[in-house]
């Protein structure tokens, strides 16, 4: 990878981490504290579930980023048609991508839902649900269109066989193209 691509990749991760790990959780916290409404009165169960969902989310975020970098030869950071990090060169359909087309989104939403559960906030839950709807709309109108342009029938075949966000066990292994990552 050239020096420029490495700098763009690092910049993309810094921007992404700042927004998805800084800005959105800060909004969740602010909304949760301002409009507090209790979800559960059993803290230990809520904390255990929140912790498990948090770990699950971080696993998916990390695993999908590594898969994109190694197998896809690029990064995840593109928003609204602006590529910050280099685009992936290969459609990644293995690793976490065999369970969901958007494992990073699933992972971050899991982190947000676990945070809301930890905060014990119904209004935070409503806010994260709205973020989920916005994510789905963005994926449908922007991300999927780009992937269709970049990878054509290969992506369309993948899209027909793999869940959009929620990981579902399936036997799909990308049998159509043996050279696909």
Write a structural description.
With 181 residues, the protein is mostly helical. It has one domain (3-161). 65% of the residues lie in helices and 2% in strands. It contains 4 helices and 2 strands. A two-stranded antiparallel sheet has the order 1-2. Strand 1 (78-79) and strand 2 (82-83) form a beta hairpin. Helix 1 (3-34) runs antiparallel to helix 4 and helix 3 (103-119) packs antiparallel against helix 4 (122-161). Residues 176-181 have low confidence and may be disordered.
Task: Walk me through the topology.
Blueprint: H1 3-34, H2 43-70, E1 78-79, E2 82-83, H3 103-119, H4 122-161
Antiparallel strand pairs: 1-2
Question: Using DSSP, what is the number of strands?
Answer: 2
How much helix, percentage-wise, in residues? 55-70%
**Helical segment tally?**
4
- The outline comes out as globular
User: Radius of gyration in whole Å, from Cα?
Assistant: 17 Å
Mean of all residue-level pLDDT scores: 81
In angstroms, what separates the terminal alpha carbons?
A: 18 Å
Q: Uncertain regions: pLDDT < 50 for 5+ in a row?
A: 176-181
**What is the H-and-E element order?**
HHEEHH
Strand order of the largest sheet: 1-2
Domain count, please report it: 1
Structural class based on helices, strands and sheet pairing = mainly alpha
β content, as a range? under 5%
Biggest pleated-sheet summary: 2 strands, antiparallel
């Amino acid at each position: 990878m050239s020096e420029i691509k490495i700098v763009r990749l690092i910049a993309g991760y810094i921007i992404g981490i700042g927004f998805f790990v800084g800005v959105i959780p800060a909004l969740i916290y602010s909304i949760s504290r301002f409009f507090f409404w209790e979800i559960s009165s059993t803290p230990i169960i809520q904390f255990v579930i929140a912790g498990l969902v948090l770990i699950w989310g971080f696993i998916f975020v990390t695993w999908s980023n590594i898969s994109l970098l190694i197998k896809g030869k690029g990064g995840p950071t593109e928003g609204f048609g602006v590529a910050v990090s280099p685009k992936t060169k290969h459609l990644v359909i293995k690793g976490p991508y065999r369970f969901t087309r958007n494992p990073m989104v699933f992972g971050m939403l899991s982190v947000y839902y676990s945070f809301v559960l930890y905060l014990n906030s119904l209004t935070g839950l409503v806010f994260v649900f709205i973020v989920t709807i916005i994510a789905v709309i963005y994926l449908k109108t922007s991300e999927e269109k780009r992937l269709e342009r970049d990878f054509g029938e290969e992506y369309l075949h993948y899209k027909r066989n793999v869940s959009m966000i929620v990981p579902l066990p399936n036997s799909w292994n990308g049998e159509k193209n043996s050279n696909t990552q």
